[in-house]
Amino acid sequence: MLLISLSLLLMASAIPRILGFSSDLTHSDKYQWIAPNVTDVRSPCPGLNTLANHGFLPRNGKNITIPMVLGAALDGFNFHPETILLAAKLALLTGDDHTTFNLDRLALHNVIEADASLSRNDAAIGDNLHFNETTFSTLANANPGVDYYNITSAVQVQQDRLADSIANNPNVTNTLKEFSFRSGASALYLSAMGDPVTGVAPKNFVQIFFREERMPIAEGWKRSTTPTTGETLASIQGAIMAASKWTPTQACEPIVLGPGIVL
Ligand code: HEM
Fold first, then answer.
1. Closest Cα to atom 19, ligand 1: which residue?
2. What Cα–Cα distance (Å) separates residue 129 from each residue in 30, 43, 107, 126, 242?
3. Beta bridge partners of 109
4. What's the pLDDT tens digit per position in 68-110?
5. What is the pTM of this model?
6. Domain residue extents for the chain
7. Which of 35, 80, 124, 208 could join 171 in a cystine, given CB atoms 3.0 to 4.6 angstroms apart?
8. Which residues touch 96 (CB under 8 Å, ≥6 apart)?
């Protein structure tokens, strides 16, 4: 009897995952925000760091598998797996293990980590791993006069951040890959902190997400009941790219296939 009840319970907890809409776990004690300790590692990505700070990913930031990332993004942000699968696969290139990666290794330049980030320095001229308030001030001060960020402000922020990198980083990498990834990252913060369909996100939620790598639950944020899907994310990313009047700085980039493997 106990076995039957247990298996029913396990099945019940698996059902939402199978159907693709897990229930909102973000308010449970198990997933409360705890700052990383000195031996925990974190990444250049505020999304993954937030998931680790809330315990959706291992709090030590180590030995993370692709299924763990996909499950954490679904449980924490209601992101469907296809929205981050490519990034999760690329993450394995940043380390030596076949099936796991550590968050800090994601700073390996030009695998996913790119120049002209929203909240980190360029690798060639500074610390590309940790949050930097000066870099983030472009986004923090965007869209003056209203209390939300949107696709239009994201375009402006990306243009300003890229102009700054081109002016100050003689080694800036700015090909279609980085432009596409940067636009994807903008779509990710708008979707995680705001409405994944319209791409409108309250400023205070976005600022807490970047500065504290925390879900702003106490401030009123809720995990969106509308999932972020491949379609919604591509729609916002595509709108950002279309409005960006972007030009490449170079046609090709160094191809980084792993630590010390650069073609
Ligand atoms: C779970 C949902 C995710 C969200 C909400 C998210 C959000 C973001 C945002 C907003 C940035 C831009 C940071 C900046 O420019 O300062 C970013 C960057 C980054 N993300 Fe994520 N991300 C997610 C998933 C992932 C996954 C699955 C990976 C790989 C395993 C990843 C790896 C990275 C890396 C390496 C960067 C640095 C890129 C750069 O240099 O600009 N992210 N992410």
1. 45
2. 27, 6, 6, 9, 29
3. 113
4. 999 999 999 999 999 999 999 999 999 999 999 999 999 999 9
5. 0.91
6. 24-262
7. 124
8. 258, 259
